[in-house]
């Protein structure tokens, strides 16, 4: 029987209030250095659901299947966007280029993720809609891929659909893992499992891919348009802005993955699903990979407040050196040949 994601989890971060440890966040963290496992927390070989952190891999698979987008719209295809007007306009542009309207979207209706945008949405009397939901860029790209490939767009969410089979193959190619579980993600699309270490390997492959490959195009879009991947002030956007050349993506349930242009990479999952420790753990992991910047330090600082004043902070745990055997790096993204 497969081990629970809780098995072997270790402390990722501690929450300190007025000098006292108030709570802890457990989880798993993997890193890749020169194609081999680097410092780790917990068991990086644990199988889990990477949630929206998988979107750059999905976007690369869609490009391989015939999707025709680049620049900010490609970043939007890999995004968990804030639902700002320009995000929603970008989703409509992806659909229009494929000859489709917003009625074709089959993701979960929701309000914009950005609090101010959600308040304006409510004030206008608008109901939750698919285009406002943070995954609508991915769903628009999935529909556009179906049109480009000549596949039925109406059933694009079916795990047996040619689009989803192509994505699954590419997840396996870049992570080096067998997809052992298929679930329904929060947005309604199929969600494929991998290991924490496999997610780090996938991001390493994307970050080092050649500029003319699908993976390299996804990396360039994320690097150049971080506000389209998240939104102003979002932790993933702040971290991307703080580290030039970084490729990164957040996911629900405390998931995050990132990689540098030379292939140094990390992936993590917080066991309790909390987002609070993620910027702290990511910033500390990037520092251990050799990144130094005041902007990264600022993005990775999460204060603990008492009566509106800072009385403590979230602190990262120190990882261990890898105890497991070296895992070969994923094949070069340019040469996978995955559909």
Please outline the helices and strands.
Elements: E1 10-17, E2 20-33, E3 36-37, E4 47-48, H1 55-64, H2 71-77, H3 85-97, H4 115-123, H5 136-149, H6 162-175, E5 182-184, E6 190-192, E7 194-195, H7 196-208, H8 214-224, H9 226-229, H10 235-242, E8 247-251, E9 255-259, E10 265-270, H11 278-288, H12 294-299, E11 303-306, E12 309-316
Antiparallel strand pairs: 1-2, 1-12, 2-3, 2-10, 4-7, 5-6, 8-9, 9-10, 11-12
Pfam family, one: Asparaginase_II
GO molecular function, one term: asparaginase activity
Biased composition (Low complexity): 323-339
Give the helix proportion (percent range).
Answer: 25-40%
State the CATH architecture.
Answer: 3-Layer(aba) Sandwich
- Listing every helix as H and every strand as E from the N terminus to the C terminus, the arrangement reads EEEEHHHHHHEEEHHHHEEEHHEE
Alpha plus pi helix count = 12
- Could you say what the CATH topology is called? Beta-lactamase
Based on CA atoms alone, the radius of gyration comes out at: 19 Å
General shape: globular
Number of separate structural domains: 1
Strand percent estimate: 15-25%
- Main sheet specs: 8 strands, antiparallel
Number of DSSP strand runs: 12
* Structural category: alpha+beta
Quote the average pLDDT: 94
Regions with little confidence, pLDDT below 50 for 5+ residues:
324-339
- What is the CATH class name? Alpha Beta
Termini distance?
31 Å
């Amino acid at each position: 029987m497969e081990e629970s994601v809780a098995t072997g989890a270790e402390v990722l971060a501690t929450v300190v209030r007025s000098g006292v440890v108030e709570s802890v966040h457990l989880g798993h963290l993997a890193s890749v250095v020169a194609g081999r496992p680097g410092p780790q927390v917990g068991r990086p070989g644990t199988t889990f659901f990477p949630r929206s952190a998988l979107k750059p891999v999905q976007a690369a698979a869609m490009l391989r299947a015939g999707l025709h987008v680049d620049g900010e719209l490609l970043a939007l295809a890999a995004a968990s966007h804030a639902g700002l007007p320009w995000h929603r306009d970008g989703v409509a542009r992806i659909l229009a280029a494929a000859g489709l309207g917003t009625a074709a979207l089959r993701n979960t209706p929701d309000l914009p993720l950005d609090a101010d945008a959600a308040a304006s949405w409510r004030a206008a009397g608008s109901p939750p809609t698919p285009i406002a939901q943070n995954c609508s860029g991915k769903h628009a790209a999935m529909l556009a891929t179906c049109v480009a490939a000549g596949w039925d767009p109406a059933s694009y969410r079916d795990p047996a659909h040619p689009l989803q089979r192509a994505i699954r193959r590419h997840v396996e190619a870049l992570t080096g893992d067998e997809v052992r579980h298929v679930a329904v993600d929060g947005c309604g699309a199929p969600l494929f499992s991998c290991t924490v270490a496999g997610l780090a390997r996938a991001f390493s492959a994307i970050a080092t891919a050649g500029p003319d490959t699908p993976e390299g195009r996804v990396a360039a879009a994320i690097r150049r348009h971080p506000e389209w991947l998240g939104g102003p002030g979002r932790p993933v956007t702040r971290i991307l802005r703080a580290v030039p050349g970084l490729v990164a993506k957040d996911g629900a349930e405390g998931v995050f993955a990132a990689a540098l242009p030379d292939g140094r990479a990390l992936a993590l999952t917080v066991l309790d699903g909390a987002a609070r420790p993620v910027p702290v753990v990511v910033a500390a992991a990037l520092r251990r990979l050799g990144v130094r910047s005041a902007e990264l330090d600022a993005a990775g600082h999460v204060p603990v407040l008492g009566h509106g004043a800072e009385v403590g902070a979230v602190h990262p745990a120190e990882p261990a050196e890898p105890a497991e055997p070296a895992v070969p790096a994923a094949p070069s993204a340019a040469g996978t040949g995955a559909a």
